[in-house]
Amino acid sequence: MEKVFERLMYASRWIMAPIYLGLSLILFALGVKFFQEIFHLLPNIFKIGEVDLVLLTLSLIDITLVGGLIVMVMFSGYENFVSQLDVGEDNDKLSWLGKMDAGSLKNKVAASIVAISSIHLLKVFMNAENISNDKIMWYLLIHITFVLSAFAMGYLDKITRAGK
Predict the structure, then answer these.
(1) What is the dihedral of CA 92, 96, 97, 103, to 10 degrees?
(2) What is the pLDDT of residues 39-79, one digit of tens each?
(3) How far apart are CA 135 and CA 70, in angstroms?
(4) Coil, strand or helix: which one is 25?
(5) Rounded CA gap, 42 and 141, in Å?
(6) Cα separation of the two ends of the chain
(7) pTM higher than 0.85
(8) C-alpha span between 113 and 2 (Å, rounded)
């Protein structure tokens, strides 16, 4: 009975596979939104102000960072929790594939969240005249919380790795 239970529990990791595949649909949606923004920009390129162009650029960078985060979580999560990816050893294989454990993935996700938050905060500062001071304070406080959390997670990971 115990062996059957353990095998069933171990096989249940495959429930995560469609979830990781579902992330690729979100990645596709981000790609559509990215190019939608560019296609809206192109006809108005000579009408748009510099600040608006920078804000749009920051939004596109945000989308790109989130896309990279999705790729990282999708591939590393699949490899760490479901099965190894068998993509061959040709030049197209990502160099970090198979080298990122759950701890380093957690730190990379935290760093990506800080980067995304930084871009968002920069957008807020560039549009500060249209945003109330108390909202700016909250954006800044949330960003600082992300930074401190990422730092604490990285520090704790360093301590636990040094103890091994």
Answers:
(1) -160
(2) 999 999 999 988 889 889 988 998 998 998 899 889 888 88
(3) 28
(4) helix
(5) 35
(6) 35
(7) no
(8) 41
Q: Please identify which residue in the block is written with the tokens 């989130």.
A: 66
The two tokens of residue 134 are 């108390």
Query: Strand ranges (DSSP E) for the chain?
Result: none
What is the DSSP code (8-state) at residue 101? -
| Residue 81, CB-side half-sphere exposure with 13 Å CA sphere | 19
Which residue reads 């760093």 in tokens?
Answer: 111
Q: Is the dihedral of CA 98, 61, 34, 131 positive or negative?
A: positive
Query: In this structure, what token pair is assigned to residue 3?
Result: 């062996």
pLDDT tens across 131-156, in order? Answer: 888 999 999 999 999 999 999 988 88
